[in-house]
Amino acid sequence: MKTRGQRSEVRSQKATKTRRALLAKVHIAVKDLGIFEGDYRDILMREFGVETAADLTEKKLVSLVEYFEAKGWTPSPRPSPARGEGAQIEALKERVGQVVLHSDLNQKRLRGLARKICGVEDVAWCHDVRRLKRLLAILERIKD
Asked: How far apart are the first and last CA of the chain?
């Protein structure tokens, strides 16, 4: 049986995960809606009286996400890999890492390519076999 302190720690860990997820949603919404940094800060100040989303409580973060949803933002669920694709995706990511390791590409360039080709900020977040294969083909061409 868990002690009161252990239960409190588990609750705070969940709160931290929930908070991080909400903050991530906020920043994704801002990007998807094309809101400029200054406008985003104005929204935070006008609607919530804070300068940064990190100063909001979880309840207020939920309200901020709902605010963006009312403005037309819809969170897109991360597609889960089809059965059997998980190993292929991991192998493709590993191959991308090997190609980058043995080339002159820097991490900034790789992130830019991942953003353009895979639609994600980091190759690790890509779960689309077709996009990973395309990225790999381009990396192979750049390497040569």
From this structure: 60
